[in-house]
Structures are given as C-alpha cells and as structure tokens.
From TrEMBL:
Biased composition (Basic residues): 1-11
PANTHER family in alphabetical order: F17F16.3 PROTEIN
Biased composition (Basic and acidic residues): 43-92
Region (Disordered): 1-143
Compositional bias (Polar residues): 114-125
Organism: Penicillium brasilianum
Protein name: Putative BTB domain transcription factor
Length: 426
C-alpha cells in the first residue's frame, strides 16, 4: 500500500509539473502577438486546445510579417523610384506626365490630349509673320511681277500754329507710309489691328499733292525706314513746341492720318507701278481729292541714281548710303524702275508720275509674264481690298486707322474728309 501511494503521488506531481509548463508556454505565445489578436473579430476562449493555438500562430505569423516589417520598405522604394520614372518621361512630354501623375486611375490618361491641341496653333504661329497670317498657297498664286504688297497710310501735317487747316495751302507736308506684308499674306475679320512691331517706311512729298496725270511729275524721298508703329507715333506723328527769338513759342502740329488702303508694287517691261485701293474712309471727300487721291489709282515710280545731282529744288543735304550691290544695278543710268530695295535707305529719292485714277491702269496686268496658275496683280489687289474691308468692319470702322497706328481714337472725331472740321478733341 505504501508503494502504490508513493507511486500515485509521484505521478500526480509529474502531471502537475507538465500542466504548469504547458500553461506557461501558452501564455508566452499570447504575449508576443497581442496586437494582431486585437484585430480578430471575436475573443478566443481559454479552453482552446493546442491545435487551435498552433493555427492562430501560423496565421498570425503569416499575416503580420508582410504588413509590419516588409511592406514599409518596398513602399518607400516605390515612392523613390516613381519620381525617377516620371522625370524620365517629363523630358519628351512634360504636360502628359503631369496629367497622368495627378490622375488616380490609368484610364484618366486621356487628358494628355490637350498637348496635341497646341500643335496646330504652333504651326499657325510659324505661318504668321509680323502679326499677319501667311499662306504658301496664296503666295504661289500671286503673279511673279508683284514686287511687294501691303497696307498704305496717308498723312498731312498742318503748318506751324495752324490747328484747323482750311485747305492744302495750310498744309506743311504730305507723307505716306508703306507697311509691307509677305506676298502670301491674308487679311480678314480675325486679323485685328496691324502689329505695332511691323516695320514701315515713311516717304515724303514736298509738293504735298500726288500727281494725277502723265504730265504731272513729283519728286519724293524716303524720310525713315525700318520704323515700327510705335516709332512712327513717337518720332513722326507727335507734335512739338519750340521757342524762337523773334516769334516766341511755336507749335508744330501732329501729323494727321486722312486715308488708309492696300497697295502693290508691280513691274512691267519698262516701268514699275505703285497701285493703291483706299479702304478708309468709307467714302472719300474733298480732303482726299485735294491731295490727288481717288478710290483707287496708280503711279509710275522710278528711283534716282545718287551719282547724279537732282534738280535744285529737290536736292538733299545727304545722299542715301546704298551698298555696292545697289549701285551696280544703277550703273550709269540716271533713273531705274523702282524696286523695294531702292527705298530701304533714308534719303533715297524717287519720282512719281500720274498714271490712272479710279482704275489701276497697267499696274493691274502682268503683260504676258504671268504663269498659268497665277492671278493678275489687279485681282490680288482687289482681294486684299475686300479682306481689309472685312478686317475694318470687324474692328471699329474708319477709326481702325487709329488702332493700326497706335493712336488714341478718342482724341479724334473721325477720319477727316472735309476742311475746317475739328479733327481732334481734348
């Protein structure tokens, strides 16, 4: 009996020791995974078997390891790598990558389409010269005897201290400005005012009046070249005041525009022609007629060789500084049919001979030198007339001339057509 009782006591002691070791092991496992156990949908019962604890350990070990330890590292790596990839893509097309970077979905890459829309605009900008659209197709149709085309402005300046001239006798000088355009230029209602940076020539007629017949010949000269509209406004149009010892203060009136139109320089076998069509004012009046202008007309124009002196009444203190290439064209000839390059130099002199009034005369034809696909110079000039009229109508009517020249239209009551009317306001 003593042996059996001692054996039972020893066996019970072993069982007690084993049970305490098992409970201790379970507690240690639970202590290591407290955080993941909080995520479980329901608390576990204490009377679970060892198998259930082992399954929990497996699931816990499989889940938290990628979430807690490993994922943070690749997330940082991807964040660091993504900018590198985007930077590589930005080089060819920055706008496309910016749109795709902002959009959370891949399907939203469609906004990259706006980058394709500026391409036609960029092409149209490349076809714009000095603020005017240029068409290669249009240029190809222009007759080869058209040397130059563009917009022309006509000015007069009253005599000193004459604010309200009553006739040509009250005019000190008559000017006109040639604003050349590309041969393929196209005007229209969407054109807007003439570009202020456009390069212009300022030409002067000492006799003030344009010739109206073949018997009338007037000398003129180039006052300024390569002038922008702003240059003309500041250095030519603006008036000035000065003091004299005998008459006191003298005021030079500002130059006043009285007409605008389109022009073309054309060449025939023996001469060059300057043809024009007025588009402002809508109806010409006595002022335009007194200066020798009609709704349309043309002149024969010739350039003078500076090697030979001109008439005493038309001599200038300084000759034009022509390069050798131009002087070689003159040779020993006193006069040559005018070419655009001859009037690109200040003090260059030219002769105007009246040719046609209310028509374009010989300036409208190519005289057999036209290619089959080309149009006559007169047709091109009429097309320019209609285009400029559309542009003027879309802007401010006759007051468009002030917008073109960069002048304040509010200072003027309109383009003058009769003498004695106030033309500027305070």
């Amino acid at each position: 009996m003593a042996r059996t009782s001692s054996r039972r006591a020893a066996q019970k002691a072993k069982e007690a020791i084993s049970t305490t070791s098992e409970t201790g092991g379970k507690a240690s496992v639970g202590a290591k995974r407290k955080a993941p156990e909080q995520k479980a949908p329901a608390p576990k019962k204490e009377k679970k078997e060892e198998k259930s604890h082992q399954e929990e350990e497996v699931t816990i070990e499989n889940k938290p390891e990628p979430k807690v330890e490993k994922p943070p590292e690749p997330e940082l790596e991807t964040k660091e790598k993504q900018p590198e990839q985007s930077e590589e893509k930005v080089e060819p097309d920055a706008e496309v990558d910016n749109v795709s970077a902002k959009s959370p979905k891949e399907g939203e890459e469609a906004p990259a389409a706006p980058t394709s829309t500026p391409q036609p605009g960029a092409q149209s900008e490349r076809n714009v010269e000095s603020g005017i659209r240029n068409s290669e197709e249009r240029e190809d149709k222009v007759s080869s005897n058209v040397l130059e085309k563009g917009i022309v402005y006509f000015f007069f300046r009253p005599r000193v201290n004459v604010e309200d001239p009553e006739g040509v006798e009250d005019v000190a000088r008559s000017f006109f400005v040639l604003r050349p355009m590309p041969l393929g230029a196209e005007l229209g209602s969407g054109q807007g005012p003439v570009d202020k940076d456009a390069r212009c020539r300022l030409l002067l007629l000492p006799k003030k009046k344009f010739p109206t017949s073949g018997k009338e010949r007037d000398m003129g000269f180039v006052e300024k070249t390569n002038q922008s509209m702003k240059d003309l406004q500041e250095n030519f149009v603006a008036g000035s005041t000065y003091q004299t010892s005998t008459r006191g203060e003298r005021h030079v009136e500002e130059a006043r525009p009285y007409a605008e139109g389109v022009y073309a320089l054309t060449s025939t076998r023996r001469a060059s022609h300057l043809a024009y069509v007025l588009t402002i004012p809508h109806e010409i009046g006595e002022i335009q007629e007194n200066f020798g202008l009609h709704q349309r007309g043309s002149f024969i124009v010739q350039s003078k060789n500076p090697k030979y002196p001109g008439p005493s009444f038309a001599r200038l203190p300084k000759e034009p500084e022509y390069p050798e290439s131009v002087m070689e064209k003159f040779g020993d000839l006193r006069w040559l049919p005018l070419q655009p390059e001859f009037i690109e130099y200040p003090n260059a002199q030219f002769l105007m001979i009246g040719e046609a009034q209310d028509s374009l005369g010989k300036a409208a034809t190519a005289e057999g030198g036209k290619k089959p696909h080309e149009i006559e110079p007169g047709e091109e000039l009429e097309r320019m007339e209609h285009e400029n009229e559309d542009r003027i109508q879309a802007l401010d009517g006759d007051s468009t001339i002030f917008l073109d020249l960069g002048l304040d239209a509010k200072k003027y009551t309109g383009v003058p057509t009769t003498w004695g009317a106030e033309e500027t306001t305070a």
